[in-house]
Amino acid sequence: MSMFSGLRMPSSFRFGSAAALAQGEELPPPVPDKQSVPSILPTPSSRLSPQPSSPIMPVGSPSPFSATPSRLARQASAASITPTRTASERNITGFFPSPGARTRSNSSATINGASPVSGNDACHVTVRMRPLTESEESQNNACVWEVSDEHNRITLNQDFADKNRKTASDYFFDAVQVGSDNKDLYEDSARDVVRAAMEGINGTVFAYGQTASGKTYSMMGVNEEPGVIPQAVEDIFTFIRDQSGDREFLLRVSYLEIYNETIRDLLSPEQNDLRIHEDRKRGVFVAPLKEEIVTSPKQVMRVIRKGEENRHFGATDYNEHSSRSHTIFQMVIESRERTASGAASPRIGGPGPPRPRGTVMISQLNLIDLAGSEKATTDVARRTEGAFINKSLLTLGTVISKLTDGKIATGSHIPYRDSKLTRILQSSLSGNARISVICTISPAGPNVEETQNTLKFASRVKKVTVHASANKIVDEKALLQKYKQEIDELRSQLSTTNELLEQERRQQQSGGLESERKKYEDLLVEAQIARTRSKERIDHLTRLILSSKTITSKHILDWSAPGDPSSARNSVMLEDGLLPTSPNMNRAPSSSASRQFADKGFLDRHIREIDARDEKIRAAENEINNLRAVLAVLKSSSDTDVVQTIDQYEKTGGQSIKSMRTTLSELDKAQRQKNELEVVCAGMEDQIKGLEEKLRAVGVNGSGGGGGGVEDLIDENRALKSTIKGLRFELDHRLGSASPDTAVANAKMLSQLESQAAEQQAVIAQQQSQNTQLQSEVESLTSELRHSHRTIATLRDSIRMLEVSSDMFVQAASRAHSPTNTQTSSGSAPSDVELALERERKLRAEEGRANVEKIASLEAELAMTKAELGAFGLVGAFGALGNGASSPP
Ligand SMILES: Nc1ncnc2c1ncn2[C@@H]1O[C@H](COP(=O)(O)OP(=O)(O)OP(=O)(O)O)[C@@H](O)[C@H]1O
């Protein structure tokens, strides 16, 4: 069972309550762990530790910094032009979020009410405290942190601090979140960054924190609470759908992990040591990295699922499903105004420099789940991983601290290259991206030291400022540009082809040589086929380019009705197993990591089936289009021969099209039948499993719950065989009743089922060999039993003989001892004969005792043998023998 199962809901939080303190008192003072790896984060003596002189706001007092980011965003957007901060203001020295730091200075305004697009910006920092875990509660731990009403201040409980000789400093951040609500988390920490990325500004959101503090829960989420990544995906498609302007987008995604300082492509796992490159135009990038163009949230989630399967997880002392690598999910967003007339278009939503039409904006959105900092664990492999994780986090801490020191301005060395993580993040950290950091912490007393380190890291990040502006790009790097060009070229080729076709047609009509006409006909057919291909390519490329016209609500998850089974959200995401299966979104999320992706096997199978079907449908559609093209050519001809040919074509072509359609519908039918058969198979598998269980219970546990033993086992075998026979018959029947057109699918199914049956047969054979073994064991036990019985009988005989001879000796001795026998007795001293007799008597008595003991031991052995037979359920079958052995002869 998961160590985190049964996590308490936020309502069970006891921030600073009397109960919490009472429990807090029972806590042992934290014992420094001598074996632990030195903490990677700043020590309390660090000069960036919370300054006692910092203004401390009383709990509950209105704070100038209490506005939530979304409120601030609204304020910022209401006052669309805000003053630009001076260079000296960029390096914030305090750890308070200054209101200015949240304000994005920019001469431009927003698109569709989204936040402004560039300017000096402090990194946005959210602290997220998870609920106490069941195991923390069972150890009488309580939450030792207090969060102020304004939700941006967090303080160590004073009593706990006093008792444990800690400093109860106040920490202020852009937001402090408690509990399990990932929707609030997204709104507070990621939405602005995602929206800015849609406007061409790079963005990076990462989760940082001690192991098991909730980074993966925050970034990926669980079924009931999708995390930042799935919500960002949904938000991006919603943004495209809802934009009022006429912009078009091209989205591509990649997914990589840094495991033990090697970079692995999670979408192409064979690429397991990728390199980091840098060039002037692209900055720092990883290559070769597989990128997939995506056109729907469902498709993105499918890509993520694929990546998750290849990701490194492992059980540690602290988290049974711990991320052993840093993962970076990256989305590249290209966009541009739809009309490429070259005229400038005014910015939507307010003043600002007009954006030339056709200019492609390109931005990167990085969503990062870091591995957690951790103390040394017992497992060697985990310890190696932990060392790599800690080293890279240490480098991240150093880089952040250098950036906050303002050394970037003086050109001092910042050790980005000391770890792959900081090297990949270099472009973002050096100021070319909006950054939002989610620092996850545990509420429990024993984790206070790690939590304080995380809060200090968060305070440092808060001081880093960035200057992110929209990236405009007009060269061939933009795929959007390339695709648009290709579409334009294909369109112009099409219109030329159309003209040619028209010319040919006219030429034919005006007569000419028969041989010439035939040549033209052939040319026409070829041209028409080429035209169809061009059209298909145009369609394909057009499908990849997204706009408010191509994205419908159907594509997007409907967050407004989470429990509504008819909602698009469910229909899109449930197939990927990421979104709620429960109608109650507010239920406590499951702590079991395995529930993060429910029923993966089924889903994968399902996705593969859909893909295969799509492929077949595409092929059929292509053929239909080709036939249509041929028909169109022929129809445009006026020649009587050709008209006749048209008739023929219409007949055959029409029939072909009809038969294609029939094939398509048959394919659908076959698919449905296949699904039904799969359900039947699953049922059969369950039945077979149940029978196997029973067999196993009989075979392994001996008496098998019914005491029937070998007989029962054989019966079970018979039942199993007849069930399989029945199931085979049912299958044959079902397969036989399928339409002939589904023969291919059915043949596949049949072979699958036959291999299942063969497996079953193997199980039976195994079971039978077990039976034979069991029988021979029983036989050997039985013969042992008989042998023991005979031995006992022999021993009893010898006891009887001994008793008789002993009596004889006793009688002889007493006769020899008798006073009437004066000739042999010499008074009080025993004669030699008497002594010999006495010795003999003692010896006999001794032997008798030994024999009785031997009998007792043999009887005990007999009892054990009987018990063994009983264990095999043979008490009934061999009872008579057992009784015979134990009863007196
Ligand atoms: N806010 C939360 N609400 C409810 N459960 C949570 C929350 N945060 C984390 N959990 C649960 O706590 C456990 C550990 O969380 P998670 O795996 O996300 O930690 P992590 O920081 O990613 O750990 P690691 O660094 O070892 O990968 C999981 O079972 C998760 O479901």
Instruction: Write down the CATH topology of the domain at 10-40 and 68-77 and 95-341 and 357-473.
Output: Kinesin
Secondary-structure content class: alpha+beta
**What is Rg?**
42 Å
Give the uncertain stretches in residue-range form: 1-119, 340-352, 557-603, 700-710, 819-827, 875-889
Question: What would you call the shape?
Answer: flat
Ligands bound to this protein structure: adenosine-5'-triphosphate
Tell me about the biggest sheet? 11 strands, mixed
Annotation field: number of helices: 25
CATH superfamily of the domain at 10-40 and 68-77 and 95-341 and 357-473: Kinesin motor domain
> How much of the polypeptide forms β-strand, as a percent range?
5-15%
Integer average pLDDT: 67
Helix share bin? 40-55%
Beta-strand segment tally:
22
Report the top-level CATH class of the domain at 10-40 and 68-77 and 95-341 and 357-473. Alpha Beta
State the distance separating the first and last CA atoms.
Answer: 58 Å
CATH architecture of the domain at 10-40 and 68-77 and 95-341 and 357-473: 3-Layer(aba) Sandwich
Protein name: Kinesin-like protein
Family: Belongs to the TRAFAC class myosin-kinesin ATPase superfamily. Kinesin family.
Biased composition (Polar residues): 77-91, 103-118, 817-829
Biased composition (Low complexity): 42-51
Can you give keywords for this protein?
disordered N terminus; binds adenosine-5'-triphosphate; 11-stranded mixed beta sheet; Kinesin; single chain; alpha+beta; disordered C terminus; 22 strands; flat; 889 residues
